[in-house]
Structure formats: structure tokens, C-alpha cells
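Obj: model holo form, ligand = zinc ion.
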Amino acid sequence: MKIVIMGPPGAGKGTQAKSISHKYSIPHISTGDIFRKNISEKTELGNRAKSYMDNGELVPDDITISLVVDRITQSDCKDGFLLDGFPRTTFQAVALDEHLKKNEDYLDAVILLDLPKKFILDRMTGRRVCTTCGASYHIKYNPPRVAGKCDVCGSAIIQRKDDIEDTVKERLEVYDLQTQPMLEYYNKRGILKNIDGTQSIDSVFQSICNVLNSMV
Ligand code: ADP
Ligand code: ADP
Ligand code: ZN
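Output (holo C-alpha cells):
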């Protein structure tokens, strides 16, 4: 199964992607996590991406597309993958399709976590993430079992630099202007699956499983 999970910042993509990846045994590929890892390791890719991310802007398409194409060409993606945070522009969506088409392949579904704006600031400013494994928590809605520590790997959990109010507002504008138009591209192809992202974490996961199970 080759799927994309998308939605505005804070919709719950990362949280759901971890569960989907586990249940359906497909690798979870998050462009945001890959960029953050490269920034913390001070690689060339990290240096190129950092200022865009800190300002809440998109990393340029050429950097991002080649990163994803390299990743999905690896052998663990042969039978499927789950892309989280990519594509984010119609240009990226077309590039992904063209890459897949070369191998007579295609996306099975694009899951859209739909969330009205009024929920977003609260989700983003309360988010805390693991510095090692990328697991995401929320101070109110999904706190870790031990304060400040990741349930999965025990590492420290921190607030992301781009999760402060001003940068969140910038990211929402970027979503409206650059990502939202991409929905029409997938809608026309009939593979866009709308999920109500305002439900509890468990209910959102159940809704996603219902959609994915109905496809196989
Ligand atoms: P995204 O990857 O779409 O930016 P995350 O999965 O990191 O979103 O979730 C954003 C924040 O909201 C996190 O703090 C997460 O714990 C919390 N969260 C995710 N899903 C829900 C939900 N259904 N209800 C309440 N809080 C949620
Ligand atoms: P969120 O989970 O809050 O939606 P991500 O972790 O997916 O955020 O992305 C964080 C940042 O990484 C984005 O604001 C952007 O700067 C960069 N980024 C991630 N994916 C892409 C992409 N497909 N194209 C361009 N920039 C990206
Ligand atoms: Zn962790």
C-alpha cells in the first residue's frame, strides 16, 4: 500500500502515521523528521533546510523531491510506504506521480486529516516531541507517562522551535497558499479520503483503518 497522509500543521499526521506504519507494516517517511535529524547532525542537507524551517517556510522543491525519491527507491519501500508531510505543493505531487509512473506504479490513497483552524494553535503550542525518535506528545491531550520523557525510547521531549505562535501562523498561511491547492489534484483522481481530525486520537485511527481496510 502506497499512501500519503496530509493535513494542516497540527492535524495529527505524525501521531497517526506511527500507528498506521505499525499496523500495516509499511515504513513511515516524514520529511519534517528527516530534515530535523539532518539539522541536529549538522549535515549539508540540514544546513540548507534550517532557515526555511525556522521561519515556517517550505524547503525548496528541488531539495525535498530528490530527498523523497531517494528514500522511496530503497528496498524497504518496495511493497509500500506512508509519506507524512510530503507532497506539500502540486509541483511535488506531480513529481511523485511521475517518479512512480516510471515503474508503472501509483498512489493508492491520500488521507486528509481535516481540522478547522480554531483547533490548530492549541495543538501546536502544546506539542512536545522526542529528540531521538520523533514521537509526538501533547501536554493536555497526550502527555507522556513520565513528565519530560518519551514513552517509546526514554529520551528527552522538547518543544519544537517552529511551534511558537508566530511561526505557527506563518505555517498556516503557507498551508493555505501552497498546500491546499494540491487537494484538488488528488480529489480529481478520486483518491482523496477525508477524515474528521477533530475526533480523539483513537477514533481518528479507527476511521483511517476503516478507509484503508475497505480498499484491500
Ligand atoms: P502533525 O504531524 O500533523 O503536525 P502531530 O501528530 O504532531 O501533528 O499532532 C500535533 C499535536 O496534537 C501533538 O501534540 C499531538 O499529541 C496532538 N494530537 C494529535 N492528534 C490529536 C487528536 N486527535 N486530539 C488531540 N490532540 C491530538
Ligand atoms: P508539521 O508536522 O507541523 O506539519 P513537518 O514536521 O511536516 O510539520 O514539517 C516541518 C517543516 O519542514 C515545514 O514547515 C517545512 O519547513 C519543512 N518541510 C517538511 N516537509 C516539506 C515538504 N514536503 N516541502 C517543503 N518543506 C517541507
Ligand atoms: Zn522517543
